[in-house]
Amino acid sequence: MAEFSEFGIAGARVERIAENARSNKAQIYHYFQSKDGLFDAVFNELCLDHVRESPIDASDLPEYAGKLFDSYEAHPEIPRLLAWYRLERTGLSDPLEVVVASLRGKEAAIAAAQAAGGIPTRYMAAELLTLIVHLVDLWGARTAEFAVVTEPTTPDRRRAVVVDSVKALLAQQ
């Protein structure tokens, strides 16, 4: 995970991975067939862990967003691997079933909360989920230039902005 997080798929070296794992390249290729296969296995495991650690609470989506933010702060490799995945794997491989199942479950939870009247229906469930996830990822997607033109913010302030933004998305109009 560390190798892929730092270098992405193209920059990662199986030799370094094998050395750090006290293994050898042949064994890695035997089990994973390719560097892409190894990345997919690492990413799949990361997704499984993240889904377990960050269950959705459709009755409190702002706090759900806050917990996702906390997870990204505690594990900076997650947003980095997500960025590499979007850059290097999207469109090149079949969607990972763990991610698809998680998204469907979250979408269904939001849709059920909307049907029960607990969440506004201004946005479809999938749209709302997409907005929340990308708000959480907002800080990791900034370019360095933002640090020059904006006040530096603390993790607590960034979390508050995410939570408040989700509250604003849910406000009735």
Determine the structural class based on helices, strands and strand pairing. Answer: mainly alpha
CATH class: Mainly Alpha
Strand portion: under 5%
The biggest sheet, with number of strands, parallel, antiparallel or mixed sense and barrel status, is: none
Tally the structural domains: 1
CATH fold description: Tetracycline Repressor, domain 2
Overall number of strands: 0
CATH superfamily: Tetracycline Repressor, domain 2
The rounded distance between the terminal residues' Cα atoms is 44 Å
Helix and strand pattern: HHHHHHHHHH
The CATH architecture name reads Orthogonal Bundle
Helices and strands in order:
Elements: H1 2-11, H2 14-20, H3 25-32, H4 35-53, H5 61-74, H6 77-88, H7 97-115, H8 125-137, H9 145-149, H10 155-170
Helix pairs in contact: 1-6, 3-4, 5-8, 5-10, 7-8, 8-10
Q: Brief description of this entry?
A:
The chain is mainly alpha-helical.
Describe this structure in words.
- By secondary structure, this protein is mostly helical.
- It has one domain (43-170): Orthogonal Bundle (Tetracycline Repressor, domain 2), CATH 1.10.357.10.
- The chain is 71% helix and 0% strand.
- It has helices at 2-11, 14-20, 25-32, 35-53, 61-74, 77-88, 97-115, 125-137, 145-149, 155-170.
- It is globular and about 60 Å long.
- The model has no long low-confidence stretch (mean pLDDT 87).
Any key phrases for this structure?
Tetracycline Repressor, domain 2, mainly alpha, single chain, 173 residues, globular, 10 helices
